[in-house]
Amino acid sequence: MVKAKICGITRLEDALLAERWGAWAVGFILVPSSRRYRPPEHYASISRALGPFITRVGVFQDTPPEAVLEAMRTARLQVAQLHGDEPPEWAEALRAHFPLIKAFKLSGPADPRLADYPADALMLDGASPGSGQGYPLEWLEPLRHHPRLIVAGGLTPENLGPVLALRPYAVDVSSGVEEAPGLKSPQKLRAFLQTVDNSGSIVETCG
User: Against a cut of 0.90, is the pTM above it?
Assistant: First the structure.
């Protein structure tokens, strides 16, 4: 059963819509250079408003472990996602406290050795995460059978079908369901989640 992960949520109303439409998790961008960044205190208010059956994910890039842990606790998050060039020892330090997703940007076919990184799930993204830039699905083939592979990069409600047919662990979308960076379109969000749900999947929303 495929989960769906939607990144870039900054507003309570978007998180509540995702929860209402069956989202498995929401996540929050904690990368200061991102247009979708908000401080941990902002996300804490959203976390408190959500119910107990939706997971909160924090997205970081090249942030030292102690700073990640402080932000995770302040924002009341449950899963950490790393999107930079973090060394494996940083991941190991974080996994002592939270489950971990590690994202890698693809500029060609996936390197099978990425599966050796110490993480609980592996995400493959486009060269410019959050830009809507995709890549050929053939690039996933070396890691297609990874037990917790998350596919990201250029996904929309309209092009989601071929990705779901691969039956990854999860799919990830940000700009593909937005009106503007950090502002979700209710129509696109619902269409994306319904497409995943209609495939017999579980829905996860991030960011």
Answer: yes
Between CA 7 and CA 207 the distance in angstroms is: 3
Handedness of CA 106, 111, 117, 120 (dihedral sign): positive
Verify whether residue 7 is a known catalytic residue.
Answer: yes
Question: Measuring CA to CA, which residue among 37, 41, 72 is closest to residue 58?
Answer: 72
Query: What confidence tens digit (pLDDT) does each residue in 148-194 have?
Result: 999 999 999 999 999 999 999 999 888 999 999 999 999 999 999 99
Active-site residue, 125 included = yes
Residues 7, 14, 172, 206: which is the catalytic one? 7
- For the chain, give every domain's residue range: 3-198
Burial class (CB in 10 A: 0-12, 13-18, 19+), 81: buried
- Out of 3.30.70.120, 3.20.20.70, 3.40.640.10, 3.30.30.10, the CATH code matching 3-198 is 3.20.20.70
- 79-116 pLDDT, tens digit each: 999 999 999 999 999 999 999 999 999 999 999 999 99
Instruction: Please identify which of the residues 14, 125, 172, 206 carries the catalytic annotation.
Output: 125
